[in-house]
Amino acid sequence: MLAIRCRLPINSSRIVSAAGVITRKEQKRHASLTMETLNPLVKEVEYAVRGPIVIRAGEIEKKLKGSHNFPFDRVIRANIGDCHASGNQVPITYIRQFVAGCTYPELMKSSNFPSDIKSRVERLLSVCGGKSLGAYTESQGIITIREDIAAYIQQRDGYPSDPNNIYLCNGASDGIKTIIKLLMNNNLEKPSGIMIPVPQYPLYSATLSEYGAYQIEYYLDEGNNWALNIDELERALNQSKDRCVPRGMVIINPGNPTGQVLSRDNIENVIRFAHKHQLFIVADEVYQENVHLPGSKFFSFKKTLMDLGAPYNQMEMASFHSASKGWHGECGSRGGYYELINIDKDVRVQVNKLISACLCSTAWGQAVMAAIINPPKEGEPSYELYKQERSAVVNRLREKAELVGRLFNSVEGVQCNPVMGAMYAFPRIELPKKAIEHAKSKNMAPDAFYCFQLLEKTGICVVPGSGFKQSPGTHHFRTTILPPVDQMKDMVEKFRTFHLSFLREWK
Amino acid sequence: MANINPRVIKVEYAVRGPIVIRAGEIEKQIKEGQHNFPFDRVIRANIGDCHASGNQVPVTYIRQFLAGCTYPPLIDSSDFPSDIKQKVQRLLSVCGGKSLGSYTESQGLITVREDIAKYIQERDGYPSNPSDIYLCNGASDGIKTVIKLLMNNDPKKPSGIMIPVPQYPLYSATLSEYGAHQIEYYLDEDNNWALNIDELERALNQSKEHCVPRGIVIINPGNPTGQVLSRENIENIVRFAEKHRLFILADEVYQENTYLPGSKFFSFKKVLMDLGAPYNHMEMASFHSASKGWHGECGSRGGYYELINIDKDVRMQVNKLISASLCSAAWGQAMMGAIINPPKEGELSYELYKKERSDIVSRLKQKADLVSQLFNSVEGVRCNAVMGAMYAFPRIEIPEKAIQHAKSKNMAPDAFYCFQFLEKTGVCVVPGSGFKQKPGTHHLRTTILPPVDQMKVMVEKFRKFHMEFLREWK
Q1: Is a pLDDT exceeding 90 seen at residue A27?
Q2: Angstrom distance (rounded) from CA B468 to CA B474
Q3: Which numeric CATH code is attached to B98-339?
Q4: Does the distance separating the beta carbons of B245 and A31 come in below 8 Å?
Q5: HEC string of B70-110?
Q6: Residue range B79-104: average pLDDT?
Q7: Can you give the residue ranges of the Aminotransferase class I/classII large domain (chain B) (predicted)?
Q8: For the domain bounded by B60-91+344-353, which CATH number is listed?
């Protein structure tokens, strides 16, 4: 062993190698990527749904495996809209049979393999290179899938839809980022501005931070079931005009985290507003198949646009859908698509060129989307089972949507708007002044402090309202409604106990 | 068009560019019947897609594994191989709700990352940590993420990234999209497309006024150029990057595609580590993919990168950035998991896997050898050896008249040549201008993927076309 005598203090970091001793400081001087040189926009990005509280929940889960002091023996993960992981459901049978058949066609020789699924598989593989899902697809996605999506949209809205306007992407998130990118002007002094709701799904704020765009925040009206007020839209837009070039507007319907399903009237007014200000509409409609309460009905932006007639029916917009939600919940597949409506043909050529550089989205995600958008029809062998599985999932969600909203409203100091759609409850909590001050002293948002306490004391992991932005002075948290019914009831009871003791502790 | 993002307009990607669009139109016309083309099919040699091109069918154990993960009741069948069943169970055990339909951790499923780390460790002899592995939607997705980290968002003196010429056009497309400066370094055609350090120095020096140089991309084995870099060449590049504090992006997606005896793949990471201090502390990223190799599962969008020696605070920022898109395709991750951990000797699925894999590899080797030989036998054509990857990149002499004609039509000369080639023979290749090249030189890139007979037919058609072209334009 070569003994190296070294004059460096014992507690400085050292890297000893055959060539000598280098200090950590010297290493940094040679470094090519540090916090100083990292893309400054990346540093601005935040995404609470997988943020600090979720990281902490992971640490606790690890500790629970061994000896620990927590007053609970499991973490209840109610932070993310993941149906399979949360126990809301198991995969729908025909979907998995379809994808398995596409993956390994040998399987379909078995007499067990349903014939209707077999013909669907053959139809898909017939348009794949080498009849394999392992070939790159067309950049917009496999043609038969785009045809089926166009048929779905046409049936839903009563207006024609062209497969050439359909783009399959790696989950709606990927498509949303692509569309927002088109609207960027790369002007640091007066960047493009995009209107986003508050509260919002934090992909939007994260993407706009990443792109250096200006976030034009419009507040949803909590007192009115999270509706969009046109006065508020005008206010937000006007106040932004000095600082940015407003280019587009995001509407999430049904809402996330807020769970509202917009009325027809509201959608019409939003369209008129967007037309008046020449804004590109980004309609995040991934929860279109999650509508729970009677009296709530999903109206697509496209249908409303078309119904309004000229000049609205010529407006440019994009609508997004996903394999991750609905009654199918195939989050891991990263299936998704967007429809580009009334897009300039030269712009479309540019979009096609842009997406071609990454070749195509995942063929397996495309196959999942194909299965979802074209389920078994009455009379087909797989129909009965599919119908049964689908209604079980839908009824369960309905039951929980109704239950959870009611239970939260029965807790003192908590007010929860009805869960009309999507997969979340977003209760508003009154926090004692002392707790608010304490949180601020720790440089934490008050509801973040609250949620960390909830996690440490009960094992329940939800996402603080500050992660979605909210009206200043209000505090919320978002929980999913996905854990099984008993777990949800248990969760709300634990929450009730915790909340009352929190109020006592901090009054 | 007046208000679309101006950088989007600058993006080009020749591999699916105008000539490929034209090939699609021709295919349609041929299908529809009435046509005047002197051929009855289009030979698509433009894209490195093994299944589509007829190079191979999917490898059996991979698809059994994926089907089992997709629809677990299958694995209980007596037909289902028990070794694959175990692998399926291991993967699903770490998925939420034991389903591939759950979001995974943002970096990707832990067992897949463990297997990848093990693969890297076995390959290089140095430890690899699953926490440094990031599964992504194909290597392309990961490459875009890592390049983004190096951007400074300063339009006056943007970040600069060194890219080879010729290069795989994802790089120029991404740098255009990001508004970054492209520091082009020419590969040395006369020396099997090696990287000359003098040339690297020249390129870097000339760029310093225009940008802040931040990183260097090396594609090894090369695309479109097919070289497999020597150990020495890699060491010199590492020293060069260290001297100029450049982040190394090692695009190593073809690491399992080396053909010629004497061509051996050396990973940048291993070379870095072997060199010792200070090189073994340099930051770099290495990319691998499910799309190439002997498996060719392009559609799965499986891929990963390893971040080596990354600052821990920067790593947290990366994790935060990727979390906003949640995770990459779980089916692509499962695919990568299957590929990186194939059946072992003694296991049930081993014999079939071994046979399938060697068939594919020998076929590729055979074609790599054949294709460059054939091209070199055509007058006025010179093709470097296809040492690795999946392409031949022959250089063609184009008569002056043809060059002028092309310019009058606002086309690159080799683009004009390739369009003629397509219209007259039905063969679709990508013009060298799509990859950039030394000014005054002309090339085309063809894959070596179509079946052997088709490749022979293709090169004969090319020979005939080329001779006629020379006559027509002399």
Answers
A1: no
A2: 10
A3: 3.40.640.10
A4: yes
A5: HCHHHHHCCCCCHHHHHHHHHHHHCCHHHCCCCCCCCCCCH
A6: 96
A7: 85-460
A8: 1.10.287.1970
Q: Are residues A39 and A148 in the same domain?
A: no
| Residue A70, domain member (yes or no) | yes
User: Is the CB of residue A206 less than 8 Å away from at least one CB of chain B?
Assistant: yes
Residue A118 lies in a domain: no
Kindly tell me if the per-residue pLDDT of A321 is higher than 70: yes
Q: What is the CATH number of the domain that holds A58?
A: 3.90.1150.10
Q: What is the pLDDT of residues B101-132, one digit of tens each?
A: 999 999 999 999 999 999 999 999 999 999 99
Residue B347 to residue B353: CA distance in whole angstroms: 10
- Quick one: pLDDT at residue A23? 52
Mean pLDDT of A438-446: 96
Helix (H, G, I), strand (E, B) or coil at B396: strand
- Supply the pLDDT for residue A25: 54
The total number of structural domains in chain A stands at 3
- Residue A162 and residue A310 in one domain: yes
Say how far apart CA A321 and CA A337 lie, in whole Å. Answer: 6
Same-domain status, A342 and A415? no
pLDDT at B368: 95
- What range defines the domain where residue A34 resides? 10-44
Q: Chain B residue with minimal CA distance to A21?
A: B277
Backbone torsions φ then ψ of B218, nearest 5 degrees: -125, 130
Q: Is the pLDDT of residue A3 over 80?
A: no
H or E element that contains B360: helix B350-376
| CA-to-CA dists, residue B90 to A38, A82, A133, A362, B107, angstroms | 37, 21, 24, 23, 18
With CA atoms as reference, report the closest residue to B216 among B269, B266, B171: B171
Residue B435, both tokens: 């990859």
Residues of B with CB below 8 A from A27's CB? 278, 281
How confident is the model at residue A29, as a pLDDT? 58
Does ipTM surpass 0.90 in this model?
A: yes
Write the residue in A103, A135, A188 that is nearest to B52 by C-beta: A135
For residues A332 and A260, membership in a common domain is answered with yes
With beta carbons under 8 A apart, name residues in chain B contacting A30.
242, 245, 278, 281-282
Comparing CA positions, the residue from A247, A276, A236, A261 lying closest to residue A398 is A261
DSSP label of B197: H
- Looking at B262-334, which runs of residues are DSSP E strands? 284-289, 303-308
A354 & A451 share domain: no
Rg (CA), chain B: 23
Tell me the average pLDDT across B299-307: 97
Tell me, what's the pLDDT at A351?
95
Q: Return mean pLDDT, chain A.
A: 93
Task: Give A 407-466 residues with CB within 8 A of chain B.
Answer: none
Predicted confidence (pLDDT) per residue in A367-378, tens digit: 999 999 999 999
To which CATH superfamily is domain B6-56+357-473 assigned? Aspartate Aminotransferase, domain 1 (3.90.1150.10)
Domain ranges of chain B: 6-56+357-473, 60-91+344-353, 98-339
CA distances to A482, B109, B329 from A84, in Å: 9, 15, 15
Q: Do domains B6-56+357-473 and B60-91+344-353 have the same CATH topology?
A: no
Amino acid at B354: K
Residue A26, pLDDT score: 53
Q: What is the mean pLDDT of chain B?
A: 96
Q: Are residues A53 and A169 in the same domain?
A: no
Q: Is residue A337 part of a domain?
A: yes
Q: How many C-beta atoms surround the C-beta of residue A356 within 10 A?
A: 23
A103 contact residues in B (CB cutoff 8 A):
63, 66-67, 70
Q: Is residue A482 domain-resident? A: yes
Residue A182 touches partner B, C-beta closer than 8 Å: yes
| A257-295 per-position pLDDT tens digit | 999 999 999 999 999 999 999 999 999 999 999 999 998
pLDDT at residue A22 is higher than 60: no
